[in-house]
């Protein structure tokens, strides 16, 4: 009985960040099944909407997104680079949130994508997510459009470090903070007092003492040119684009759709709620990704 209660609580916690949606109709499943069956090299573009079932909230969904649930706004790149106090606040919160963030596991959508790879339907996965859940699900040929939270780099030299290793360094530098690691809100964010933040020792590059930053494209920053070019090549090599769980609000993802349409490729979107590209794509279905994808590979 206790195991059943625990499983139910976990289900509630993980689905708490999934926006309200209508279950798919049979025709929705058939539309996607036919789309996937007639293409051999599908580029899959994923956004935060596919990770909500794993317990990671997205930004923009009504009522359940981070913007709707709290006043929390992502750190801006220029502020992070310019102000030591911004870096101190960021790293203090990141330090507390890391154990839970890094423990998050893939959900049915991530595994469904992996199954489509196994039957040679997927040419590449371009993800806007920094959570590495595609990697955990066993997927291959993944381009992390906005980088990853699992690697940290120096802003002044070529030094980089695994995020797990950096966590150990920060624990050694901030032993008083170790007992605060469980202070995490349901959305994965944390609230620290001003005193806790001001006492936090920010990690520095061991080679040049420069500031360290996760290998993530912060708001206000640009996707590296070589990554943009790699994505462009993958789009050209594909024969269709399948968007999963993205509103395509940011231009770095929207331009993928623009390129695909310029190249006369079919584009399908599976996402709860509207997207920036709804009026230019071939197929748009608004429902939860896993409800469509879970057994898709068995029907093709």
From TrEMBL:
Record-linked PROSITE patterns: SIRTUIN
Predominant subcellular localization, coarse grouping: mitochondrion
Entries under Gene3D superfamilies matching the protein: SIR2/SIRT2 'Small Domain (3.30.1600.10), TPP-binding domain (3.40.50.1220)
Keywords for the protein's UniProt record, in alphabetical order: Metal-binding, Mitochondrion, NAD, Transferase, Zinc
Residue numbers annotated as active site: 146
Catalytic activity: N(6)-acetyl-L-lysyl-[protein] + NAD(+) + H2O = 2''-O-acetyl-ADP-D-ribose + nicotinamide + L-lysyl-[protein]
Residue sites binding Zn(2+) per the record: 154, 157, 205, 208
InterPro entries: DHS-like_NAD/FAD-binding_dom, NAD-dep_sirtuin_deacylases, Sirtuin, Sirtuin_cat_small_dom_sf, Sirtuin_class_II, Ssirtuin_cat_dom
Listed GO CC annotations: mitochondrial matrix
Localization (cell): Mitochondrion matrix
Chain coiled-coil ranges: none
Residues reported in the UniProt entry to bind NAD(+): 47-67, 128-131, 245-247, 271-273, 289
Cofactor(s) listed: Zn(2+)
Cofactor-binding details, from the entry: Binds 1 zinc ion per subunit.
EC top class, as a word: transferase
Domain Deacetylase sirtuin-type: 22-300
Pfam families given in the database record: SIR2
Family annotation (PANTHER family): NAD-DEPENDENT PROTEIN DEACYLASE SIRTUIN-5, MITOCHONDRIAL-RELATED (PTHR11085:SF10)
Family classification: Belongs to the sirtuin family. Class II subfamily.
HAMAP family per record: Sirtuin_ClassII (MF_01967)
Protein name, per record: NAD-dependent protein deacylase
Organism in which the protein naturally occurs: Papilio xuthus (Asian swallowtail butterfly)
């Amino acid at each position: 009985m206790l195991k059943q209660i625990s499983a139910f609580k976990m289900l509630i916690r993980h689905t708490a960040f999934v926006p309200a949606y209508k279950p798919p109709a049979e025709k929705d499943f058939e539309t996607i099944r036919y789309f996937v069956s007639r293409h051999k090299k599908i580029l899959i573009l994923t956004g935060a909407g596919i990770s909500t079932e794993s317990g990671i909230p997205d930004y923009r969904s009504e009522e359940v997104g981070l913007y709707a649930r709290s006043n929390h706004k992502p750190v801006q790149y220029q502020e992070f680079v310019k102000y030591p106090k911004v870096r101190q606040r960021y790293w203090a919160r990141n330090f507390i949130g890391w154990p839970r963030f890094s423990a998050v596991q893939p959900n049915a959508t991530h595994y469904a994508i992996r199954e489509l790879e196994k039957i040679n339907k997927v040419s590449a996965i371009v993800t806007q997510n920094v959570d590495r859940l595609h990697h955990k699900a066993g997927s291959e040929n993944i381009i992390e459009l906005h980088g990853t939270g699992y690697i940290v780099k120096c802003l002044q030299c070529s030094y980089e470090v695994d995020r797990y290793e950096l966590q150990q360094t920060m624990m050694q530098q901030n032993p008083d903070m170790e007992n605060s690691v469980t202070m995490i809100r349901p959305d994965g964010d944390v609230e620290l007092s001003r005193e806790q933040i001001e006492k936090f020792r920010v990690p520095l590059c061991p080679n040049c003492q420069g500031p360290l930053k996760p290998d993530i494209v912060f708001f206000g920053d640009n996707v590296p040119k070589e990554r943009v070019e790699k994505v462009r090549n993958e789009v050209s090599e594909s024969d269709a684009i399948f968007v999963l769980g993205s509103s395509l609000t940011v231009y770095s993802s929207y331009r993928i759709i623009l390129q695909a349409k310029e190249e006369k490729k079919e584009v399908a979107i599976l996402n709860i709620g509207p997207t920036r590209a709804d009026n230019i794509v071939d197929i748009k279905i608004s429902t939860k990704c896993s409800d469509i994808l879970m057994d898709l590979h068995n029907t093709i």
